From TrEMBL:
It holds the Pfam family p450. It comes from Pinctada imbricata (Atlantic pearl-oyster). InterPro entries: Cyt_P450, Cyt_P450_B, Cyt_P450_CS, Cyt_P450_sf. Belongs to the cytochrome P450 family. The keyword Hydrolase does not apply. This is Cytochrome P450. Keywords: Heme, Iron, Metal-binding, Monooxygenase, Oxidoreductase.
Length: 428
């Protein structure tokens, strides 16, 4: 076993958290260059931490690594979300996963489709102007409506005041999640933001409990959660509804949709007319959007014992940060990794879909993926069937990566309604 290259430095003095948060990509590239390794160590959040940006090592961490690691989110996020699956390990986590997975099987997800389609159709009129609109803002609005409607049975048209105040609460809650004090204070992160977020969490839980009592029809999501094996436990039901209705999910969905639409309305505009009828092209574009712009830069684990990670010695008590961003740009797997090239997925990388880790992987991978793909495809098909979309020229497309990746600036696009003849031709 090799020692992980790099240095974990002295407590507090050697901490690199501020460097990381200031510019996580620069931090990553600098350490990869200095250590000449895509697996390196540094002191982060004042804990010796192994950073994993090598694709094969990341995969091993998420699969075999579960035997030697715990999830690493509890200390920072449990308070703001309450107890949920993300903060559990071992048998408890396996039991919760089995229970919650029932909500997201392909068959169950089909039962949500009518509602998703209705919301997408209701939102389409918003793009119907000759003006440029901010792509991310639009995607965020549509995905928020879908999630709150699915998980809380909220109707944005009939109860717009209630809906808007719930959206405001999820925003305040979100600001607390990202201000999570960690043990270091970052510029701009204040205690009062965190306090307000905890209050917002309590308000959201009250609404969730109220909605749960109101919506006991068999088709409602909250009813389905209550039918899960753990569904008689209030904490299980309420806290998972809180997790799903938090701003995290719509932000991640909007991130993928925004990356897809930037490419298809800009550099790859020529693919717009064929993408709806060519499912392989659609899949390639979505894989490439995920590869280059994963919504989450990475994730965290804690070593529960000394272990061998793909040849590297990892010590008990050390943290591990897996860097999805870096693993997706690992030149050992992807030629010209900085280039957006959907055609790689039908060529050299046709067997490499399992090397994309936007949704984590292994026994703790995302359980919401069936739903995610259903929502994403419905939004794309809904928009591209009726509209052609053009990216405004000359915009700065720089991406930001924390807390959820998206363009740094407002990116403007224009949707133009197709004629009936165009709709028939593109759809045939
Ligand atoms: C684009 C949207 C989404 C992305 C990018 C995403 C990504 C992820 C990732 C990376 C993980 C693994 C975290 C880790 O191992 O460190 C995860 C776990 C999880 N996801 Fe998602 N997710 C998305 C949407 C959803 C949705 C819609 C749901 C359900 C409503 C969901 C439910 C979960 C749950 C419950 C876990 C925890 C699984 C466990 O702890 O065993 N996710 N997700």
């Amino acid at each position: 076993m090799t020692k992980v290259p790099g240095s974990v430095g002295l407590p507090i003095l050697g901490d690199k958290s501020i460097d990381f948060y200031r510019d996580p990509i620069r931090f990553t590239l600098k350490h990869i260059e200095n250590t000449n390794s895509r697996v390196f160590c540094a002191r982060f959040l004042n804990t010796p931490t192994v950073f994993v940006g090598c694709n094969s090592t990341l995969k091993e961490l998420l699969t075999d690594g579960v035997r030697h690691t715990d999830m690493g989110y509890k200390a920072f996020m449990e308070h703001i979300f309450g107890q949920n699956i993300l903060f559990t390990d071992g048998d408890m986590a396996a039991g919760l996963r089995q229970s919650l997975s029932q909500l997201f099987t392909p068959e169950t997800v089909k039962t949500y489709q009518q509602r998703v389609e209705r919301i997408v159709n209701e939102c389409l009129h918003e793009v119907e102007s000759s003006e440029y609109i901010c792509l991310y803002t639009f995607m965020k609005r549509i995905c928020t409506q879908i999630c709150l409607s699915l998980f809380l049975d909220l109707d944005f048209h009939q109860a717009s005041d209630t809906a808007n105040s719930i959206v405001a609460l999820t925003t305040t809650h979100w600001h607390g999640i990202i201000s999570v004090p960690l043990s270091i204070k970052l510029p701009g992160s204040g205690g009062s933001t965190y306090r307000k977020a905890l209050d917002a969490k309590e308000e959201l839980l009250k609404i969730i409990i109220h909605k749960k009592e109101q919506n006991d029809s068999a088709g409602s999501f909250s009813h389905k959660v209550q039918q899960c094996p753990h569904g008689n436990e209030d904490i299980f039901v309420n806290n998972h509804l809180l997790l799903f209705t938090s701003a995290l999910v719509p932000k991640a969905l909007s991130s993928i949709l925004t990356s897809f639409f930037i490419e298809i309305s800009g550099d790859h505009r020529d693919l717009q007319s064929s993408v709806l009828e060519d499912s392989i092209l659609m899949e390639s574009l979505l894989l490439e959007a995920q590869r280059m712009y994963p919504p989450f830069l990475g994730g965290r684990r804690l070593a529960t014992e000394d272990f061998n990670l793909n040849g590297y010695k990892v010590h008990k008590g050390h943290a591990l940060v897996y860097l999805t961003y870096a693993a997706h740009r690992d030149p050992a797997v992807f030629d010209n990794p900085e280039q957006f090239d959907p055609h790689r997925w039908t060529g050299r990388n046709s067997q490499d879909k399992d090397k994309i880790h936007c949704f984590g992987g292994g026994p703790r991978g995302c359980i919401g993926q069936n739903l995610v793909w259903q929502i994403i495809q419905t939004v794309i098909v809904g928009l591209l069937t009726k509209y052609s979309v053009t990216l405004k020229e000359g915009q700065d497309l720089t991406h930001k990566w924390l807390p959820v990746s998206r363009p740094k600036n407002e990116i403007l696009v224009k949707f133009v309604r197709k004629t009936e003849q165009q709709i028939d031709t593109d759809g045939s």
